[in-house]
């Protein structure tokens, strides 16, 4: 087991203060078990640090799973395989592709570890596509009692829906059995459209496309629409990635015209609607996820389908009348419902609306002004993104919350896996 010397863990956007705990990297289940049993509290797993919520910070031990990154044999009859919990999605996808397989769907980025992404309910978009955790068919984890157990369809099956989105509160996951699909290519199309057109046609686009999402550019009356559909056509050369320069251009307009909204709106509309369209064919994993080189802070809520766009419009109105400092796009996606106890999509489809802030800008207004709008429309927050959800709210919003809390107490009766945030959430 290795320990990182003279380092303090911090999340990607630097929104959380540095954590003073040592960062430990066990190389085996035996070392992980010994590490677990050597602490009475605060043993927290860490992935890639792309969460904004304090799921990781602790004074005791942060556990990296770099040595748990293997790709097991893929069963050709079921398309299932055991994958290392600490493997990065962007490393797994090309390895799976070489063997003829792929994840059914991915989110906007793929730098997360498999365990980190699934444990926080990471999702992509698609009316008929569930979040990544719904593809879990089994998990192996070291519980708070130091036992290395398996949860799956044949062993401890009654716990599977609890463990799929577990926040690292049930144990430290070492392997995940994932449902895969045969590798496939996608046709990606991106084009600008007016906000009015986007809202009036969003339901149709979700119905007609495998993947549909859109990004509304504040103060532009314009959205960028993205679709992906399965194809067998030959791959094409990818477009140049202009996302970073484009974001900096939005920032520049904000900085220079923050208090001149009409001129800013005119320039933005002209700029965004003149953006070149995108028409690309390639491997699914290569097109679904993209790089995010400009750091930001983010709040995302998952809303009932019938209220999602209404909530987005109220947030847009607030931003464009009260917050001229905001320039990052809003994002809207839809995900199919599932049965995981702590999945935000438990019980049915939801539209996800995300609001982003440049990492150097204040984001307190997300809590004071934006979050109440999301909550008014029946939203549930993304577990890894900024929110102020209380224990009482979690119990009210998640029908199976108490079942999960009971399972947590059973697998970690002494609270070894708890930190301050989880102690408050589970009132433990």
What portion of residues is helical? 25-40%
Number of helices: 13
* E-strand count: 18
SS strand fraction: 15-25%
Overall morphology: globular
Global structural class? alpha+beta
Q: Mind summarizing the main beta sheet?
A: 8 strands, antiparallel
**CATH architecture descriptor of the domain at 185-381:** 3-Layer(aba) Sandwich
Rg, rounded, reads 21 Å
Low-pLDDT ranges = none
- For CATH, the homologous superfamily of the domain at 185-381 is named as FAD-linked oxidases, C-terminal domain
Topology-level CATH name of the domain at 185-381: Vanillyl-alcohol Oxidase, Chain A, domain 3
Short descriptors:
4-stranded mixed beta sheet; 428 residues; 24% strand; alpha+beta; 18 strands; 8-stranded antiparallel beta sheet; globular; Vanillyl-alcohol Oxidase, Chain A, domain 3
Structure description:
The protein contains 13 helices and 18 strands. With 428 residues, the chain is an alpha+beta fold. The protein has a domain of 197 residues: FAD-linked oxidases, C-terminal domain (Vanillyl-alcohol Oxidase, Chain A, domain 3), CATH 3.40.462.10. The strands form four sheets. An eight-stranded antiparallel β-sheet has the order 14-11-13-12-16-17-15-18. The chain has a four-stranded mixed β-sheet with strand order 1-2-4-3, with helices on one face. A hairpin with a 4-residue loop joins strand 12 and strand 13. The mean pLDDT is 92.
